[in-house]
Structures are given as C-alpha cells and as structure tokens.
Design brief:
seven-stranded antiparallel β-sheet
Length: about 325
C-alpha cells in the first residue's frame, strides 16, 4: 500500500532534519503539528518553535493546538485521513483516538536504544552514564510511554569528544534518514515491528534545575560525564565568587587530588584551570560566565584575576 498522507509532529531543532527531508520526498507532510509559540528571552516575546519556522519555509500547513487530543485537532486530522503520523520530540501525549487514526499508526523517532532511557532526556542520560554507544529507535506509539514495538534501531558510537550538543546534532541528522527508511519499507511490507523487552527498560526523567548543578565532591569521571551530558546547552552549573558559571569542557588529569574538592590549584597558560575533585584533578578548559559567551578557561582566569586557592562551589 502506498503512503500518501503523512502528518508530522515535532517541536525543537531535533525534529527539523526529519521534516525537511520528508518535505523533499513523496512523503511530504500534508500537515505539521507543533507546540504553541512560547515567551522567551528577557522581554518574554512569543517565539515560534524551530519546527514551525521550518514548516513555514517549506510551505507546509501548520497547526499549534494547546491540546493535541482536542476534538478540533482530531477532526482536522480525520479530514486529512493520514496514512501515518510521524512524531519527533513533539512534547505531548497522543491518546487512543489519534493513535488509531492512521493505517500505519503513529511512529516516533527517539534518540536512544530502547528500551534503554525511555523518557525525555535520553541523550543527556547516555552521557551522564558514560555510555560508549547510543542510537536512534523508531517505534510505534502505544498507551505506555516509549514502550511500543520497534520498527528500526540503529547504533551510533559516542566518541570521547562528543557532548550533548554534538550528539543531538548527529542523532537528529541520522534520525531523518531512519524515518525515511522506515516509510519506504512500510510501503513494501518489508518491515515487522519487534516488541521491546520491558524488563530491561530504564528511564531518563525530565531534567530539573538540580540536575544541572555540578558537585565537586564527586569523582573526576562523574564530573566529566555531567559536563559532557549538558554541554554546550544548557551547561553544567557551578558557583564562583557568588556568581553562576557554566562549565563547558573539562579533561581528567592523571594526578590525585590533595586539596578540598572544587579548589583551584593552578592556571595553565592557554590550557585551562586546574581543579581538585574527590579523586583526580581535572582541567577546566572552557566555561561560560553568566551573561557572557563561552570562552576559554584561561581567558576567564586572566579577566577575573583568579588566584590559587579560590574555589568553584557546588551548583548555584
């Protein structure tokens, strides 16, 4: 059976490559659903989602329901008679009435190797845990969160230099091709969904402000994982001289820490700031003071005239 009517649902930048790729194929969405505009920035002006901006560029019809399960939204989709609904980081729960609309169901692109890291922050958690492999999963949406049968799963190596930002971009880019592959195989009846092993499921909860705080009393490895899992956006937060500073990049040194965790041990020219932790010293290489752009730690140390013995504090 040929897939003619595709409805796409997405909100942040993660979904944009999938929307853009589909728009240039015979699977071009007939409708794009995204979250309502929300106030951002100091002036709290309403800002469109990244998906809305891209859909407008592509000339695709957009709706932004406050409640995607409302009768108006369901009626709109019923009129379109979608063959499949593709979702990618949409940010909303689809009730049965919507799930049962398309012949091929509602399929979701999720940046994890399900059943590992079900939930809203799988990329962060893969890095928090120091994983070496991650990937994308496309599965059928069912009533239980991220628990539906899997149509496609592809692995991706997490490199030592990867952080949240770089992995987000890679998984977003590769995920677009994965979505296209699934649609092509669905048409040809070449793909069968495989049930997940629910007993192996782990979860990645929605991040709260405490998740962003750095704890210098942790080991160097745990601090490195936290920094990688949050860099460059939103950034792991520490305190310095009663101000907030985001730690963007660190490196573990092969030296045992002898001072109190968080103590600044040395400023190494053009390299970074040496800091103690619970076990090994680390080198803070890049950071972002409040209200400023990301800079090298060396530049920060010069501007702030940092002295040995000062401390980064836990969180802020």
């Amino acid at each position: 059976m040929q897939i003619k009517n595709v409805v796409f649902m997405g909100t942040p930048q993660f979904a944009v490559p999938s929307l853009e790729l589909l728009a240039n194929t015979r699977f071009r969405p007939v409708l794009c659903i995204t979250q309502p505009d929300k106030p951002k920035g100091r002036k709290r002006k309403l800002q469109p989602t990244e998906v809305k901006i891209k859909a407008q560029e592509l000339g695709i019809e957009i709706i932004q329901p406050e409640d995607v399960n409302s009768e108006d939204t369901i009626q709109k989709m019923q009129e379109l008679k979608p063959d499949v609904i593709i979702t990618a980081a949409y940010g909303g729960y689809l009730k049965r009435k919507i799930r049962q609309l398309p012949i091929f169901g509602c399929l979701n692109l999720h940046p994890s190797l399900l059943p590992k890291y079900r939930g809203s922050a799988p990329i962060n958690f893969a890095l928090f845990q120091g994983d070496e492999i991650t990937g994308n999963t496309i599965f059928k949406i069912v009533a239980k969160m991220d628990a539906g049968p899997v149509y496609l799963q592809k692995k991706l190596e997490i490199r030592a230099e990867d952080c949240y930002t770089s992995l987000y971009k890679k998984l977003s880019k590769y995920g677009a091709n994965d979505v296209l592959e699934v649609l092509e195989k669905l048409e040809k009846n070449e793909i069968e969904p495989i049930p997940q092993d629910h007993e192996k499921a782990t979860f990645s909860h929605k991040l709260v402000k405490e998740d962003f705080w750095l704890d210098w009393d942790k080991t160097a490895k745990k601090i490195l994982n936290k920094v990688r899992g949050l860099a460059e956006i939103p950034g792991a937060v520490a305190g310095f001289r009663s101000n907030r500073v985001k730690i963007i990049e660190v490196e573990i040194l092969n030296e045992n820490s002898k001072e109190d965790p968080g103590s600044i041990l040395d400023m190494i020219k053009n390299v970074g700031i040496k800091v103690s932790t619970a076990d090994k010293d680390i080198l803070v290489k890049r950071l972002q003071p409040a209200g400023k752009k990301i800079m090298t730690a060396h530049a920060f140390s010069l501007g702030a005239r940092i002295k040995n013995g000062e401390k980064f504090e836990n969180g802020f």
